[in-house]
Structure formats: C-alpha cells, structure tokens
Amino acid sequence: MDCVTTGGNVKVLAKAIHSLSKIGEELYLEPVEDGLTLRAVNSSRSAFACFLLSPLFFQRYQAPSDHAFRCKMPIKSMQAVFRSLSSLERSVEKCRIELNSEKNRLTVTLHCKHGLLKTHNLSFQDCESLQAVFDKENCANVLRAQPRLWVDTVLHFPPSLEEVNVSVNGERVWLRNHLEDDADPSRAMMTELCLSAEEFDHFAVRSESNITFCLKELRGLLVFAESSGLPVSMHFDEPGSPVVLSVSDSVLDANFVLATLSEDAHQRNHNNNKADRREAQPAADDFMSDDMDSYLIAMEASDLPGDLPGPSHESVPPVPQSSTNHRARLPSEEEEEEEEEQVNQPPNKKFCSLFFGSVLPASSQLTNQTIQGQEVLASDSDDEKQEE
Amino acid sequence: MPLSTQSQPENDEYILIASLDNVRNLSNILKAISFKDHAIFNATQNGLKVTVEDSKCLQANAFIQADIFQEFTLKEDVVGFQVNLTVLLDCLTIFGGSTVPGVMTALKMCYNGYGYPLTLFLEEGGVVTVCKINTQEPEEPLDFDFCSTNVTNKVILQSDSLKEAFSELDMTSEILQLTMSPSHPYFRLSTFGNSGNAHYDYPKDSEMMELFQCTKTQTNRYKMSLLKPSTKALALSCKVSVRTDSRGFLSLQYLVRNDDGQICFVEYYCCPDEEADEE
Q1: Statement to judge: residues A158 and A104 lie in one domain
Q2: What three-state secondary structure class fits B115?
Q3: Domain check: are A119 and A8 in the same one?
Q4: Contacts of B202 in chain A (CB under 8 A)
Q5: Which pLDDT score, from 0 to 100, does residue A138 have?
Q6: Residue A352 forms part of a structural domain
Q7: pLDDT tens figures, A36-65
C-alpha cells in the first residue's frame, strides 16, 4: 500500500480519524481497489463507522497487489500523528501512508514547510475485515440537510445526553431527548425541537416512525461534516433497525451505522427492568435460522495467514435488546475490554450490540463455537488475540 | 518560617542590590529553569547566573546580564547564595504577574551576605510588598566540562521549528534520540513509544536552520524526563543552539528576548543515557 495526499485533503483525513475516534478505540484500515477504508466500531458493537477515501482523493494511490492486507491499531496512535489540526493546516504540505511490510510497520510521513519531515512508524495488528451490512437505499425514510442544521439542532441537547429520539411524519421531524425508563418524567428536563420539511435539502418520509439512537456518534460525524461542509443524510426505518448517517462527495463516502432502540425492548424494559441476561440467549438460535436481513450488520470473518491459531472470526450473533444484554460481544475481546467498558459505558444500556448480525462460516463447528462463546461472559483467554 | 532567625540589616549594608522596572524580565527567565526547588545564585560584575540541577545529569543556567537591571550594585567580587526557586517565583509574581501592557511590577532585590535572607521589594500601582526569603548554604554546581573545543556537532535553529516538534513528541517514549550528521539525516529527533517510533528530520538547508556545523555522525539518547523541562526555555526563546561534544553530552542554548527586546540566555546541559553507550 502506498498513498499520498496533499494540501486540504490531509486535513480531511485528519478529521475523519478524529471523528472515528468518537466511535471506537481501534482504527481498522484496509486499502482496497475502490480506495482506502477507515473503520471503527464501538465496544458494544452498536455503532459502526466507515470512511471510504477513493483513489481520486489521493495524489497517488496503490492498493496492495495481493489484496489481503488489513490491519487495526489503537486509534490514539494514528491521532497522535495528526494531533494538531492547526499545525496541519499551517505547515503540512504532503502526507504519505505506506506499508512497510519488512518491518511490519505502517509508515505515515508528513512533509512540512521548511523541509521538515515527520516520519511515524506505527505498529499494527492483523485483523479480520470489519464490515457492516446495511442497505440504506431501501430505507423508508431519508432526510438530508446541511451540516449547519444538524449542528444547530444537536446543540440544544446537553452534552451529557446519551440518546436522542427522532420522529417523523410527512411534514415534520421532532427531536427530543430520550428518557431512561427508570427516570421520573415529572422531574426530568425535556427538550423537544420540531423541524419542518422545508429545512431539509431532501425530505422523503414513506412511513411515519419514531426511532431512538445514541447522540455521541452523530456528534462525531458532525465534526467531520461541518469541517468539510458536506450535507448529512439520515436513512432509517422502524425502531430496532439501524439508522445510517452518511456524508459523501465525489472522492469520499462516510457511513455511520447506529443501533436504534427496538419497541420490543422498550416494552420489555418497562415490564421487567432487571431482565435476566440469559433471557436473550434463545434469540441467538432464532437468528441462526433466520435469513440474513438486508439491514443487519455483519462482521465478516476471514482467516488471515498472519492470524494466531484458534477461532479468528469476529462474529457476533445479534441479540434482541434487553436491559442488560449490551455485553454480547466477542468472547475474545471480552476480557480486554471489560475494564474499559466499565469506565466508559453506563450500566444497563439498552441498545448496543443488537443488530450486528454475522456472516457465519458454513462450518457448523464454528457456529457452535459462536453460540457457546455467547454464553461465556467472562472469557477464557484462549481466544485472545496477540497484543503487540 | 520565622524570619527572626536571620537578622535584619540596615539599608546601606546590602552587598547586592539589583533593581528592575519590570519584574517579568527576571521571573520569565527563571521560569524557564524552574524544574527543581533549589537554585544557586551567583552574582558577579557581569550579572546574575542562576543554576538549577537534577539527578546530577541535567543542569540549567539562566544568565541575566548586569545591564538588564536598572541598578546592579555589587560590593564584593562574587556573591553566592541558594534559595528555593519556587518560593522566589511565587514572590516575584505576587501581584499576579499581569501581562497587561503598561502594568508593571517593579523589583528591588537586596542581599546582605552569608546568613541573611534575600529581601525583595515589589511595587505595583503604589502598593509595596516586602518578601524575605531565607537563604541556604550554596552548593557547588556540577562542572559538565563542556568546552567548545570538544564540540563535534553544532546547529542553530529557529525555535519555532523545534517548538512544534517538542509539542508533538511521543511522551510514552522514555528517551529522545538525537542524531546529528554531516550527511542524511543531518538533524533528527527520534522517539520510541508504545505506538511505534517517530522521526523528525530537519534538512541542513532548511530556512529554519541558521547554522549547520556537523563534522561526524553522532547518535545519542537522552532521558525524555530530563529534557522535558527544557521545553519551557524553548517556548520563550527565538533561537536555539544544539551542540554535542565528543562524549555525547548535549548543550542547548536558548536565546531569549525579553519584554524590552533585550537578550538573555538560558543553557541546558544533559548527560547521554548510559544504556545507549553500552549498545
């Protein structure tokens, strides 16, 4: 892999990485024929983000000849390269990203004013391809607006607010803060905004619906959209199926796929706030027999030569939402993320991890492992990937 | 701390009197070397030299020439004492260290010799504060024996270009590796941190490079924790001279322009990291 980008596009690249850092801790990087993909997923796998920078985005773009290279790295190490946006704008003239396969390093070179050359050799890990399967074209509802409108709208919600509820009819959009089920509505502050269809560049509502999703990731995308001045589209269906936020222009595409709260789960939460996690288990089986719904997000797994022995698929069977099931994650990542999760994630979240389907290998053995893995909440470390 | 342990001299008994219209001309430059509490003051007819050391591996000197002071009277050839630098800086900025133009704190600093406190008279807007800081037995500063005849490599850079590099340095790296060479990479700063390594290369013909005199390729490692305080001096300075001698000792000399456009110098000496020698 060898790609070179210049001028303002360096800042676009930096902003893309910055906005991915709002999603997850790791950056998945994969150069393909269509361009360089940068992806991130959150620890509960309820949010996925992907940037595709087309070959035209770069002054020079060469995907690896064997098409097999993909890697992940802590997003912080990539952020460190693009730490100061102001100095990027002021002094960086050219940025080159290349794979040094001999040293197993990803080399990012910044050519700055006055001949200063900054070379960062970043270590990375091999990884599976991270891909969400979603079909935004078939979504019933599409809203598109200038980033300014979204930013001004989101601004009214307090930074501490986790989830926002969006409802649409043929003429209007309402946004309100989502109240936790155990919150007392008489005490909580409610914020509600109503936007008329005219405010949007594109407003197509085929079915009235009402969805709830996390605000943090939307804010992450807005950071990028605002700096690039690109309109933000929102594709969504009924509650429970993901909402896709996207930005695109001729040389780049960005899609942020976020879980929405299902009505079903909503109901259950009302009935039984302390639903046992195990309640969710049978659903995994249900899913196995289901056809792959087009909107489901799948984590595709493919074995890489560089992988350690052991099951390497990063597949998560989806589990319907319940008050406690946000832990449904890879067994292999369970342990290393346990700690972060406790710090970063509020307990009893209702979405999360729900809609990530999986493209499972045909082998029934693997399927079984996935299901078994699902039940193991404190993992055995056999599956643990090698840390650098 | 009771001041009564050190007796009060009469006005005309001071052996050192130094006055400044703008105390920032002293306090700023002292901040550039304030990484340890103990500061050794050494006053001669040329001016004031303040020395701070760490771990017997790092020494910082600030030079404030006599003509920076509006009054600089010395009754002996050499006057030496040691004070707590943090306390001194707190006193010098006792009026808040305002940077508003036209608002200046004036200083008169007096010392009556061995066993007496350092007395500071600070005045701003007609308000006078008198501070007395107990002095300590002066220690003998380390002699790094860094002499210009042994200098192998020397470059002078405009500080702005180094400031950016130092602000971005990967602090997870324990060491900063400095390579100076008559051929590529000429002048290179390297870090080796958790996420990988990073190199910052400055070509010898860069506009930022005022002088490039490298005779031999030299690569030395210095403890990041020791070099960290020097960024304070870097931030204040407009030019920096980087020199290494045949033993790998590092000398960083910073040219600092004060509020009145006068020039002072701050100098850091640092020992190379032992492990690098063994490799």
Answers
A1: no
A2: coil
A3: yes
A4: 114-116
A5: 87
A6: yes
A7: 999 999 998 899 999 999 999 999 998 877
A11 and A97 co-located in one domain: yes
Under an 8 A CB cutoff, do A116 and B161 touch? Answer: yes
**Residue A272's CB: how many other CB atoms inside 10 A?**
12
Q: How far is B194 from chain A (nearest CA, A)?
A: 8
Q: Is A105 on the interface with B (CB under 8 A)?
A: yes
Whether A7 and A121 share a structural domain: yes
Contact list, B203 vs chain A (CB under 8 Å) = 115-117
Is B210's Cβ below 8 Å from some Cβ in A? no
What is the residue range of A63's domain? 2-126
C-beta atoms of B199 and A122 within 8 A: no
Q: What is the ipTM of this complex?
A: 0.85
B212 Cα to chain A: minimum distance (Å): 15
- The CATH code that applies to domain B148-278 is 3.70.10.10
Contact B273, B245 (CB under 8 A): no
> Which class is domain B3-133?
alpha beta
Question: Which regions of chain B carry the CATH code 3.70.10.10?
Answer: 3-133, 148-278
Contacts of B164 in chain A (CB under 8 A): 84, 87, 91, 116
Q: Is residue A264 part of a domain?
A: no
Q: What is the CATH number of the domain that holds A169?
A: 3.70.10.10
Asked if residue A255 belongs to a domain, the reply is: no
Is residue A145 located within the same domain as residue A62? no
Cα distance from B196 to chain A (closest Cα, Å)?
4
In a domain, A334, yes or no: yes
Q: Higher pLDDT residue, B229 or A126?
A: B229
- pLDDT tens-digit map of B162-186: 998 898 888 899 999 999 999 989 9
Q: Is A100 on the interface with B (CB under 8 A)?
A: no
